[in-house]
Amino acid sequence: MEVAETIAQVRSLVGAARGRGKKVGLVPTMGALHTGHVSLIEAAVNDCDFVVVSIFVNPTQFGPGEDLEAYPKPFEADLEICAKAGVDLVFAPAPEQMYPAQNLAWVTVERLTEPLCGRGRPIHFRGVTTVCTKLFNIVGPDVAYFGQKDAQQATVVKRMVADLNMPLEIVVCPTVREPSGLAVSSRNQYLSDRQREEAANIHKSLEECRRLIEAGETQAARIIAKVRAKLQEVPSMEIEYVDVVDAETLESLEKVSGRVLVAVAVRIGAARLIDNIVLETGG
Ligand code: AMP
């Protein structure tokens, strides 16, 4: 496994692989790798001949007062995980490599970035789409892998790639969970043991919501109220949003119909956690 810190190194190594006829896969991450990331790497190793993992805590997707400084950076452990998983190249640039000057060119996706996490994190998706564009331009992958855990991010990136004719395929992999149902996340490290147990309630509330919809409930307001009530069983959990939206347009629904995304963001202590489920409903 090679480790590159510069764009020139990546271009040269990927160029050589491409010259040997290799299909190139990219897994963009912010490091602090866990089983969720590993599932994306495994999908890439399965489908591609040359797998690149980027590890970069992208400053432009963090707003003021967010956890940019505190974000965990266990770099040596990350490299070990990548090597074990069969990664060919880790790209771990310094911020100055990715942003050598004040950034003036941004990639933005309209509408899809406004609801859900976009409300509380107004510059977040602009940072995500811009850094993904940079990574796609640097690596030139045939396929890039994203997680369903960040459903809005996956939808936004897919739309960016389609609208801007970027020459790669986006694959979205299922959410990996702890045995308790809690979605695995680098930010779970901010939780105490007790908070981690309490955080399992997020998944429980979404599963209750699934049962409710499967039993025939169609009114989004009633579904949201039920999820909120279940979340509030943990008093320390602060709800940022619970929403029932169309899985493609991310627009709020009054009545569930078609492919529906139920998405939740909460705060527990220092951690902001998100989770979601997608349901195929009638109508
Ligand atoms: P991050 O390092 O948090 O930016 O995540 C990098 C990629 O891993 C994103 O595409 C995430 O959606 C994905 N990811 C994070 N957690 C999970 C999880 N529990 N299951 C599947 N994918 C995940």
Quick synopsis:
It is built from 9 helices and 9 strands. The protein is α/β, with parallel strands linked by helices and 283 residues long. Adenosine monophosphate is lined by residues 29-30, 36-37, 39-40, 146-147, 149-150, 173, 175-176, 183-186.
Protein architecture, described:
This protein is α/β, with parallel strands linked by helices and 283 residues long. The protein has 2 domains: 2-173, 3-Layer(aba) Sandwich (Rossmann fold); 186-280, Pantoate--beta-alanine Ligase, Chain: A,domain 2 (2-Layer Sandwich). The protein is built from 9 helices and 9 strands. It has helices at residues 7-19, 35-47, 75-85, 95-98, 117-120, 124-139, 151-163, 193-214, 220-231; strands spanning 2-4, 24-29, 50-55, 89-91, 143-147, 169-173, 238-246, 259-268, 271-280. The strands form 2 sheets. The protein has a 6-stranded parallel sheet with strand order 1-4-3-2-5-6, sandwiched between helices. A 3-stranded antiparallel sheet has the order 7-8-9, covered by helices on one side. α2 links the parallel β2 (24-29) and β3 (50-55). α8 packs antiparallel against α9 (220-231). The protein is globular, with a radius of gyration of 19 Å. The termini are far apart. The protein binds adenosine monophosphate. The site of adenosine monophosphate has 17 residues, from α2 and β5.
Which structural traits does this protein have?
single chain; 283 residues; alpha/beta; Rossmann fold; Pantoate--beta-alanine Ligase, Chain: A,domain 2; 2 domains; 6-stranded parallel sheet; 3-stranded antiparallel sheet; 9 strands; globular; binds adenosine monophosphate
